[in-house]
Fold this sequence. Notes:
Four copies of one chain form a homotetramer.
Chain A: H1 10-18, H2 22-27, E1 30-35, E2 38-43, H3 58-74, E3 82-92, E4 100-109, E5 114-125, E6 128-142
Antiparallel strand pairs in A: 1-2, 2-4, 3-6, 4-5, 5-6
Amino acid sequence: MAGDPERPDFEERVRSSFAKQGLMSTLGATLGTISPGVVEIGILPHAAISQQHGFVHAGAVAAIADSAAGYAALSLMPPGTGVLSTEFKINLLAPARGDRIVARGRVVKEGRTLTLAQTDVFAESDGREKLIALLTATLMTVEGREGVRD
Amino acid sequence: MAGDPERPDFEERVRSSFAKQGLMSTLGATLGTISPGVVEIGILPHAAISQQHGFVHAGAVAAIADSAAGYAALSLMPPGTGVLSTEFKINLLAPARGDRIVARGRVVKEGRTLTLAQTDVFAESDGREKLIALLTATLMTVEGREGVRD
Amino acid sequence: MAGDPERPDFEERVRSSFAKQGLMSTLGATLGTISPGVVEIGILPHAAISQQHGFVHAGAVAAIADSAAGYAALSLMPPGTGVLSTEFKINLLAPARGDRIVARGRVVKEGRTLTLAQTDVFAESDGREKLIALLTATLMTVEGREGVRD
Amino acid sequence: MAGDPERPDFEERVRSSFAKQGLMSTLGATLGTISPGVVEIGILPHAAISQQHGFVHAGAVAAIADSAAGYAALSLMPPGTGVLSTEFKINLLAPARGDRIVARGRVVKEGRTLTLAQTDVFAESDGREKLIALLTATLMTVEGREGVRD
């Protein structure tokens, strides 16, 4: 990959921040493809992340979808800044079950202070993908705040 | 507690369903007060549920807030039905940190098919509470669907 | 256009329903392209639909975006049913001004009861388009309710 | 009314800005009670603001609810600033019909840059009120931007 000349370290930046998210590790989530403005996070359905009917809990789906959106945004942000979600909205279209759940976040509109990103969440079963959730998030670029960086 | 004559088992129903949510156990979440249409869920900040700056991850906040909204709704639903979130929206007002995070869900409007609920999420520090997030959720009453009950 | 064999009258259905929306006429909104699952609505910025700084009011942007999403959904619904919005979310990315505002609604996922649609809203200026808003809506298919049809 | 010593002109500020919103006049909307952080806007159902079944269009409901939230926020903002909606979410709970529709906006959390507000929308019929919609909005305080003030 040629990389983005303005953000040469976007991938390392995302991977290193992701590694600090205790929740992602607790959920068993893993990073997939990373490009400038696009980040993929996957998770395997299992009992430890379930809701009461055995599906993956909407909160776990939202967690990886929010992280995918946030890292898609962070991958485009200036060095030395950090990212925080200010709000998100998720529509849950079908129960989250199958072989694997994958969240694909992408930046819709980059702004100086606020960035809009969307994440499509798919359930993979027998090699086929089905859209199960759609998340829209507003991410804030945070500068010069103690402890909020990358 | 006098209880609701129409839903005598609402508390047992919520507790028994909550116990099946693997994610709640994984996050270390616990049920608090339960009344008809109102459910409280708490969580203690720790590294296993953190985001990259050490705050509780927005996904973990959303997970307990969504469950609190869902169980507030379920506490009013007819016996034999189940509850599913169809969408939710969360505004994150301040970093989730402190001694404890508590989510208080309440039903705003009960409907035959769709119920609207809201959850206020507070951070407790030194005995004081601060509103850190507000979630609005649409819950669907599910009847007669295999495996979707309580 | 070949049309959709299952919904031969989708265009007439949308046009005839749109003509009954008093608000669309009051706002000066007009229908553009209509395909199965995709509907476009446009509006010309003018003082009668402004907010206090002279931009098009977010409520007017939301109105055409919601109608575009709703008609995208209606274009796929079974004959004899009607459509109602149950909720929508809009992110306002830039002030709504320019030569023309155009809302392009499309169905993301069709369901028996609930359909998810999204609308991109663009401002056109000097022949160029800029994304100014993104709306996500849940539409309900209504059957057999007095007065709620098309 | 005693007024807020820090914002002595909040009511005049809101009324004067509201008077500049061409859309409010076009919809026939009127300001009701104004207190610091709380603003009411009403509207009479009529054909010019209807959707296809004769109810008030969700876009008109959203417009007054968004303005009520925005003005609730503006009433608390420092002099010389302006307010813009960055996003809102509305749940439509029942058809908007009756003698009058009234939107009551209130600030949930004031921030330096972003303020969260909520609006309850009621339909009045025969002297009784019914909750028909709930809107949550993020408002941005804008300073020093040409043309964006009050």
